[in-house]
């Protein structure tokens, strides 16, 4: 398996903005094959799963919802669109959605086509539906309940349908991370762990228990993300983080900074890592804390899907290795007919320029720390650098797109 290593030097560069806009055009929604839907209990946790009808390799994703949220947020949306779980199944991934063991699905909250297995825990007497009275402001829907932001991506007209799917809270002595870990144990092959908000804390603990089985973490506005204490356990794992809008008013600034900091730790420990801030890196505004429920959820899904593709199919059809002992930066970016190469290695490094479609446009050597771009078309370009056995790929924009 080859890795297409995309490094992240400046997360707020115009390059990333344009790149994310481009991949956002390719929205996913069609079903490829018949999938299998089911549920089971482990460690008191109800697990909903989708077995892909067109599974590829050992692709599996374990999803962990945030506080007082369930599989619902991954399976569908308040305005009845297909959720991320089924979109991943369409792309060939098996998907497991792990619910908090304390939830009482025997009382209510189960969704079709899933059911409550007969061997599940019985209903909890007096269990009530979870509720957070200030979620409109805290999750970026609007200034207060019933008063959405003008650019709100969350389908506020369907909020009542969303609220119906809040879980009933019962009791359990089982720890959430042990349930997540047990799901991983039931899976053959490596997994990706996708966690949302406070679901990240038990997800990180579960990754510690199963680190040899984990490819990496996909963090959706996480609370309790990994930090320096998680290394060297997490050496070699990968990480992708994504954030929506209204970070300051939602008091999420420190969380976002923590994720950006740990992203660098993943890179320094041999992983591939990136953090996307949607208001900074795309033209789409109004994203809420529930990115998988927003009206542009397919757009965000495609950003995640594109990032994951580098670990399965190399879009350029070339071998790529991320090595720590060669550092290359290109500037200015965007640029015109030439770009300067800043590196800690030697001159005369070989390079190849590819179009976004993977077409080889030019091949030469870096001379006098510059690359001549006059002979290649404008637009988004990939520049592959070769030095001995090492390869680094950079993205650059020539004269805009």
Q: What amount of the residues lies in strands?
A: 15-25%
Question: Strands of the largest sheet, in order across it?
Answer: 1-2-4-3-9-10-11-12
Percent helix among the residues? 10-25%
CATH topology of the largest domain: Rossmann fold
Q: Helix and strand succession? A: HEEEHHEEHEEHEHEHEEHEHHEEEEEEE
The count of helical stretches stands at 10
The CATH superfamily of the largest domain appears as Alpha/Beta hydrolase fold, catalytic domain
By DSSP, the count of extended strands is: 19
CA(first)-CA(last) distance? 32 Å
CATH class of the largest domain: Alpha Beta
Q: Describe the main β-sheet briefly.
A: 8 strands, mixed
Total domains: 2
Would you kindly provide a written description of the structure presented here, covering whatever features stand out?
It is a single chain. With 401 residues, the chain is α/β, with parallel strands linked by helices. The chain has ten helices and 19 strands. α6 (176-185) packs across α7 (200-209). It is globular, with a radius of gyration of 22 Å.
């Amino acid at each position: 398996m080859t890795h297409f290593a995309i490094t992240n030097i400046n997360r707020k560069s115009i390059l990333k903005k344009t790149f994310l806009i481009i991949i956002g055009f390719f929205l996913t929604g069609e079903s490829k094959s018949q999938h299998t839907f089911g549920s089971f209990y482990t460690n008191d946790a109800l697990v909903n799963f989708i077995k892909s009808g067109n599974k590829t390799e050992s692709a599996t994703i374990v999803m962990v919802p945030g506080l007082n949220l369930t599989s619902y947020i991954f399976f569908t949306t308040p305005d009845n669109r297909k959720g991320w779980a089924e979109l991943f199944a369409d792309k060939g991934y098996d998907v497991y959605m792990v619910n908090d063991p304390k939830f009482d699905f025997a009382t209510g909250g189960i969704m079709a086509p899933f059911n409550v297995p007969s061997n599940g825990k019985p209903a909890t007497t007096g269990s009530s539906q979870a509720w957070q009275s200030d979620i409109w402001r805290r999750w970026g829907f609007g200034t207060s309940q019933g008063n959405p932001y003008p650019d709100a991506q969350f389908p506020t007209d369907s909020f009542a349908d969303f609220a119906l799917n809040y879980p009933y809270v019962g009791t359990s002595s089982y720890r959430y991370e042990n349930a997540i870990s047990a799901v991983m144990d039931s899976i053959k092959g490596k997994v990706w762990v996708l966690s949302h908000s406070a679901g990240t804390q038990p997800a990180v603990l579960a990754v510690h228990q199963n680190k040899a089985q984990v490819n990496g973490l996909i963090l959706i506005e996480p609370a309790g993300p990994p930090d320096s204490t998680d290394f060297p356990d997490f050496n070699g794992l990968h990480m992708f983080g994504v954030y929506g809008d209204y970070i300051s008013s939602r008091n999420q600034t420190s969380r976002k900074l923590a994720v950006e900091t740990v992203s660098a730790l993943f890179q320094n420990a041999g992983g591939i890592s990136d953090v996307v801030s949607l208001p900074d890196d795309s033209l789409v505004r109004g994203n809420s804390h529930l990115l998988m429920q927003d009206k542009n959820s397919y757009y965000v899904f495609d950003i995640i899907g594109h990032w994951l593709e580098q670990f399965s199919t190399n879009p350029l059809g070339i071998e790529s290795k991320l090595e720590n002992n060669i550092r290359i930066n290109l500037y200015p970016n965007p640029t015109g007919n030439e770009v300067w190469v800043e590196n800690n290695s030697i001159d005369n490094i070989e390079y190849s320029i590819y179009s976004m479609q993977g077409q080889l446009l030019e091949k030469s050597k870096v001379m006098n720390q510059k690359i001549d771009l006059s002979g290649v078309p404008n637009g988004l370009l990939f520049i592959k650098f070769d030095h001995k056995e090492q390869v680094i790929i950079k993205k650059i924009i020539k004269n805009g797109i």
